[in-house]
Predict the 3D structure of the following.
Amino acid sequence: MATRCVDRELLNDWHIVADQESLSQDTPFPTRLLGVDLEVRRHRDRTDVVRTDTGAALGSAERYGFIWACLDKPWRDIIYIPEADEADRHLVSGGSIAVKVSGLRAVENFLDMGHFPFVHTGWLGEEPHTEVAPYKVEITAQDEVLATECKFYQPIASPTAREGFVVDYIYKVIRPYTVALYKSNPIQKDRLDVITLFVQPVDEENCIAHPYLCYLKEGMAAATVRSFMQLIFAQDKPILENQVPKRLPLDPRAETPIRADAVSVSYRRWLRDRAVTYGAIPAQA
């Protein structure tokens, strides 16, 4: 039997439950959030999200091309992505990818530069460029995990890259299951492409990843942005699904970190401080 989520941090927050492209009018779309079975029902003038166990309608919204829902009363709004308001960017979904692992593991993998040369060989990394240089991690005034001064050599950093170069990265964990990446654009060197990964916690050991891509349009078609993201995530998926254990251990002694894992260590501590346990193995008292 699935564990019931009791984390107020998650129950009182907004989560993506469907990509609008996957919905058809008057055909219910079944999905799951935090162990609760749901149906997304699209009508001519509105979209409803309903619990299938009680028939109760949840608070729901449409934003960034996704359907959002909250299982209880939301404490705050859906996150704001300023780049989504910029007219010279492609705003596209990277698809909804089911992954048999805790969503917290998916977020942590997204933060990990160390795997680039080995999992994304020839794209986001290659040998002998395997070292992760020191970078800074802090908790911001908005209570987000922020990693800056991240640099990594990438042969093909994006579809517009014509040669390998050292890419500047900024990572920001915005909510427990939401992480954003800002990276150098190969053409407009003074601006950044943005990928926000919204992870839908289906249950404690299964999730659906919903990447949202805000890429500068110059030199690139929207379909190319989407296919590049799907290529990269397809390389990550089998690695994620082979993680043992499937849930993310929060005990500092559970898995031995190295210097390159500084942002992961901060993320796990941040989850402990926010009393997030769903999808995790809590630290021992």
Remarks:
- The chain has a mean pLDDT of 85.
- The longest strand covers residues 192-203.
- The helical segments are 8-11, 103-110, 116-119, 222-241, 262-273.
